[in-house]
Amino acid sequence: MYKSLLPELKPLIFEGKSGVLHIKHQNKDHARLYLKEGLIEQVETNNLQGTKAVDTCLKWVSIEIHFEEGETSDYFPDDKIDTNAILSYLEKAHHNVRVIKQYLKNNDAILQIDTGKLSSAKGLNQDVLKTAIFLNGQSSLQEIIDQIGQPERTILIHACRLLNSKCAKIIPNKTTLDKEVRIEFLRSLNDKVMELVGPVGPILIDDAMAAINTEPYSLTREELPLIIAEIAGNMDISEGDELTIWSSYYLEETP
């Protein structure tokens, strides 16, 4: 779930609380903010400490937060950590999180770019355009975040800007066919359609996929009969009937 750290941390600082604010991130990382009388004296993640840990955890969005009140001595204060600077940063980040929650539910979302709209879009900077390259309609946002290696909030804001400009759309969640099954289906379908209509067969298959708004790499089992029906509808009646009969036997045997 997307959350802003500001509403949780700000009262602890203003009320002069002492304790540890735990932040669990979706990627399994865990941050600990050590507070003493309202001042953040140390920040740690699983692998980082001090200002580097601050820079990392403040850019998380998919988080769970828990405060453990009470003074602790399990840390060494770092005088480079500036509590006011952290609050100021989170004030700006809070708006980003609100925007993200308007467009996205979680990092499982799969986005696909409309290349035509992207080429004519205005106001998108180079960083946003670089993120757009990875929105292939197949990889989830989390997979893209892991692949690019940039902060989670940065990638999510880029995705929201692309959605807002209509250059990207969210692909409905669906279970795609296993790779081997998908490849075998497309090979067999291509062979059968070419047997019936000759070299124009691959064109009929491409047109059918475009008609139902799908791609070869994201086929679901539910889409297979729709593709067959589209192809058969563009054939002579006898050829279409033969393809339909072939598909009924083929799909029964497809796992």
Kindly describe this structure.
By secondary structure, this protein is of the alpha+beta class. It contains eleven helices and seven strands. It has helices at 6-14, 51-57, 83-103, 115-120, 126-132, 141-148, 152-164, 179-197, 201-211, 223-233, 237-253, and strands at 19-25, 30-36, 39-44, 63-69, 110-113, 136-140, 168-171. The strands form two sheets. The chain has a four-stranded antiparallel beta sheet with strand order 3-2-1-4, covered by helices on one side.
Rough outline: elongated
What structural category do the secondary elements indicate?
A: alpha+beta
Q: How would you write the strand order of the largest sheet?
A: 3-2-1-4
Poorly predicted regions are none
Distance between the termini: 35 Å
Query: What's the number of extended β-strand segments?
Result: 7
Instruction: Name the helicity range.
Output: 40-55%
Strand content: 15-25%
Q: From the alpha-carbon coordinates, what is the Rg to the nearest angstrom?
A: 26 Å
Give me the number of helical elements: 11
What profile does the largest beta sheet have?
A: 4 strands, antiparallel
Mean pLDDT: 92
Order of helices and strands: HEEEHEHEHHEHHEHHHH
Topology:
Elements lengths: L5 H9 L4 E7 L4 E7 L2 E6 L6 H7 L5 E7 L13 H21 L6 E4 L1 H6 L5 H7 L3 E5 H8 L3 H13 L3 E4 L7 H19 L3 H11 L11 H11 L3 H17 L2
Helix pairs in contact: 1-3, 3-7, 5-7, 8-9, 8-11, 9-10, 10-11
